[in-house]
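seq as requested:
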Amino acid sequence: MASLPRTLGRRLRRVGDDVTAVVRAAGQMVEERLPARRVPPRPLPEIEADLARLVGLEHVKEQVQSLVALLQMQQRRREAGLHDVSTGQHLVLLGNPGTGKTTVARLIAEMYGSIGLLDSGHLVEVDRQGLVGQYVGQTAMKTDRAVKRAIGGVLFIDEAYALSPGGGPRLDFGAEAVETLVKRMEDHRDELVVIVAGYPDLMHEFLESNPGLRSRFSREIGFPDYATAELVEIARTMADQAEYSIAPDAEPTLVAILDEARTRPGFGNGRFVRNLFEQAVGRHAVRLARADGELDRDALTTLTSDDLAAAAELVR
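struct tokens:
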């Protein structure tokens, strides 16, 4: 009888996990069927200013600016009755997690809309789960649905290598998604741009998995891992945006945490910094909740070395 509560507890947890999975799947189905949110494109200088403000990524910024300038000039040459040079609009973003690929993809989509290359420049973000079904016939429908939502903008496929053989488990219908995508890219070549992203080696395997992919993705942009100094700047920016600050005497602790984390396999770059910051905010709240007396503005906004050290233990 002593094991009965444990058995019931395990069964209840399984039921809870099943309910969570059903709710998550239902939410995804609803999202897939909703029209993508479209807003009028912002002026190009405003978008370029957002790109310039990103920490690091200087080579990425140069390539994006060069691509947009080239597309603008090709438009003007066509308007003047001149021949234009065929320029690939679909992009491959190569880099480790947390290196800014999604953020840059979103800005590129806006830029394409702002210069008139696309009607709206909105971005629809999907991964394997958003394109591949579990049963025969589902995959083409899911992929078509994603493409339809992205018409007039950009379809951004994160971890696109998961669609190709060798990219992960249970890839039964991944090839079907790729075939459908290649066909739709041709069908909607004047109203759809596709950006794919992921680890460099796996993405090259993905591009070779279908004869039509490599020819359609002729331009690649590499995203390097952030240096420690850049990660510190990202942490400062996150803190400032949330109306926190990192105590000056806490920066050596932050640098030591980042130096150590960067040596680990699968280091998450900016994603790690965000997790660290969120945990530090939590530790800061616990510390202040236990404090006696009044709390001034500095106390309410300053993250200490102890906050960061405690947070680092939670994000290992």
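Residues 21-27 have pLDDT under 50 and may be disordered.
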